Amino acid sequence: MIFLYYRDGISAADICDFSGHLKTNISRAVTALEKKKLISRQPHPEDQRRQLLYITEAGRTLHDRFMPGLVLREQDMIACLSQAEYRQLEKLLRKLCNHAPQWNTRPLANDATDASRLPKQPE
């Protein structure tokens, strides 16, 4: 819903591509938010097979009610960082966001406990 607040009128596939979330998870979230009348779906004007998602007025109201608290929580989380550390964190988060389209290119391991399929962590 936060995504739609800033980029209204995109598809669930667009959200998946940007966020790296699985399609099934986004589909469930869309269905739940639609049932609560926080978002709506409308057919794409040029491709009737695709649906575009829009945040409703109720969704905007809910967003506006909760975001100030989330902003304060974020400020509390980063309060322990120096300015240099915060700049580094921003740089790393930006890099991860730019890399998001590649997140879905590799299939997930069948067994989440199969550590041999996980990439090696730098030491």
TrEMBL record:
Gene3D superfamilies associated with the record: Winged helix-like DNA-binding domain superfamily/Winged helix DNA-binding domain (1.10.10.10)
Coiled-coil regions, chain positions: none
Keyword Signal appears in the UniProt entry: no
Keywords from the UniProt entry: DNA-binding, Transcription, Transcription regulation
Occurrences of domain HTH marR-type (ranges): 1-98
GO MF annotations, alphabetized: DNA binding; DNA-binding transcription factor activity
Any one Pfam family match given in the protein's UniProt record, by short name: MarR_2
Keyword set includes Transport: no
Positions of region (Disordered): 103-123
SUPFAM superfamilies, alphabetized: Winged helix' DNA-binding domain
Descriptive protein name: MarR family transcriptional regulator
Species this protein is from: Advenella kashmirensis W13003
The organism's taxonomic lineage, starting at the top: Bacteria, Pseudomonadati, Pseudomonadota, Betaproteobacteria, Burkholderiales
